[in-house]
């Protein structure tokens, strides 16, 4: 769907959302026994995970990008639009969601708060959640937004935020120590998601595709990547779980390298969810695979 079609469709859907919202406000319902939970809509997995860790049982957090879907490509459904119209808070990362600007411009419910957690934290590359230090800043922005909406539970949110930030400090320490002494510092990735992480820990990222995994590289770029792999004795080509491993496998076949997963955490698959994986377990698994690929001293 092109941008204009999306805007037209969204406008029609928003009218439906307003009607449902108004009906829900005017319908006679029994008085609740306890205050209603905050309704938080997150654009994709990391934003939803951070919000849920902060808000706990005080909020219903909805990740509108389905499990296994790629957020660079996902477009909100009719139901997603209605949920956003009825939310207290919408959390975007910025520069990942192709629909983000349209939602902010066309949302009809003026009481909905919208934040862009990644705004001001980097360049055109939106993948700030993969750098533990930049992710801490996103967490603090999300915490501040939730607290502003529900100041009566500020101490609860503050305690959860402190605990979450400590986990990021531990993750940062693990990456610093785990990647300190390695035989190589060159990583070849499926798409350019790991620039901030690479810069933070002294690695050199060469991406097969661009900032979005759906960007098809030119033939020359594939040839140059293969030459880099051979010239720098790269042993592993990284692939991702949410996109086809075809390009990574092609480079590996051409160069005699092996493939290994490096997860950009743009979402979890149903299998990963069923295994109980989350942001931190995936980040630690990424560290393990980086150490293997780069022959690091653990």
UniProtKB/TrEMBL annotation:
Q: Which UniProt keywords apply?
A: Signal, Transport
| InterPro entries, alphabetized | AdhesinB (IPR006129), Bact_metal-bind_prot9 (IPR050492), Lipoprotein_PsaA-like (IPR006128), ZnuA-like (IPR006127)
**Which residues are listed as membrane-spanning?**
none
For this UniProt entry, the molecular function terms from Gene Ontology, in alphabetical order, are: metal ion binding
Q: Which biological process annotations from GO are given for this protein?
A: cell adhesion; metal ion transport
Q: Give a Pfam family name.
A: ZnuA
The record's PANTHER family line, in alphabetical order, gives: HIGH-AFFINITY ZINC UPTAKE SYSTEM PROTEIN ZNUA-RELATED (PTHR42953), ZINT DOMAIN-CONTAINING PROTEIN (PTHR42953:SF8)
Q: What family name appears in the similarity comment?
A: Belongs to the bacterial solute-binding protein 9 family.
Q: What is this protein called?
A: ABC transporter substrate-binding protein
Supply the source organism for this entry.
Answer: Candidatus Andersenbacteria bacterium RIFCSPHIGHO2_12_FULL_45_11b
